[in-house]
Prior knowledge:
By secondary structure, the protein is mainly α. It has helices at about 45-65, 75-80, 85-90, 105-115, 120-125, 135-150, 155-160, 175-180, and strands at about 25-30, 70-75, 100, 115-120, 185.
Amino acid sequence: MEYDGKYDAFDLGKVSTYQLSTRSNKVTLDDLVRPEDIDDLAVELPETKCSDIETVAREIVSCREAGKPVVIFTGAHLIKNGLGLLLADLVKRNLVTLVAGNCATAIHDFELALIGQTSENVPDALSKGRFGMAYEFAYLNYAISVGNEYKLGLGESLGRTICDEDFHREVLALTPKGNLPDTFAHPEVS
């Protein structure tokens, strides 16, 4: 790639990467909340928050019954805290029509699909200059480049990569498997 911008480009030859599987992570597949286990989930919330959640749930059902779309805009925390399978279940049941997440959302989904773990120790990685430097992130760039050649969106490109047969875990990215072409978008749509 040629660069003609006003800023100096840095030497990519000096970038040091590591294998994702060698990194210590805070979240594994065992930490994911599965839809079938939702009744066993113990979360203490103030009564006002419970009421807010019930109101949102009723509105979602009302919108879907009226044929209206339901869009969830989210950052990475839902995925890295194990709630991706719940989002996927809402999509499978047609209660949510679009999940739009930022790039960190896609990265956590990718890591869970590839190695079954995610959420590096950020302060430790930053102090060592290793934050976000896993070699496998090149797969994301490649997926985006190939998807662009085929005129695919970012979400579909990454979803197809994550749902490739070499990835043996179903996490959030279900677009190709669920045949839901407009269900997931990465990064956040504006």
